[in-house]
Amino acid sequence: GARGDSYYEYLLKAWLQSGRRDDQLRSMYTEALHGIRSRLLKRSAGNGLLYVAELDGGTVKDKMDHLD
């Protein structure tokens, strides 16, 4: 959801700020993206729009938050 995505943003930003030298940060970011793509990237019924579902306590919820 909207609350958790900053973690992924900070991984990417921290890796870039390291001059792209911190392999652990890059690995953590890459692994997180793989998980998002494999578990949370969905297509809506009908028009097939792509969205990122929400993971809540291990359960995938077919909804997407928006930032206010």
Series of H and E elements: HHEEEE
What topology, given as strand order, has the largest sheet?
1-2
CA-based gyration radius: 14 Å
Helical content, roughly?
Answer: 40-55%
| Count of strand segments | 4
Globally, the shape reads elongated
Class derived from helix and strand content: alpha+beta
Number of helices: 2
Mean pLDDT: 88
Distance between the termini: 12 Å
The main pleated sheet reads as: 2 strands, antiparallel
Low-confidence stretches: none
Name the beta content range: 15-25%
Describe the overall structure.
4% of the residues are buried. It is elongated, with a radius of gyration of 14 Å. The strands form two sheets. A two-stranded antiparallel ribbon has the order 1-2. The protein has a two-stranded antiparallel sheet with strand order 3-4. The chain is an alpha+beta fold and 68 residues long. The protein has two helices and four strands. It is 46% helix and 18% strand. The protein has helices spanning 5-17, 23-40, and strands at 41-43, 50-52, 54-56, 59-61.
In short:
The protein is α+β, with helices and mostly antiparallel strands and 68 residues long.
List keywords for this structure.
two-stranded antiparallel ribbon, alpha+beta, 68 residues, single chain
Topology of this structure?
Blueprint: H1 5-17, H2 23-40, E1 41-43, E2 50-52, E3 54-56, E4 59-61
Antiparallel strand pairs: 1-2, 3-4
Helix pairs in contact: 1-2
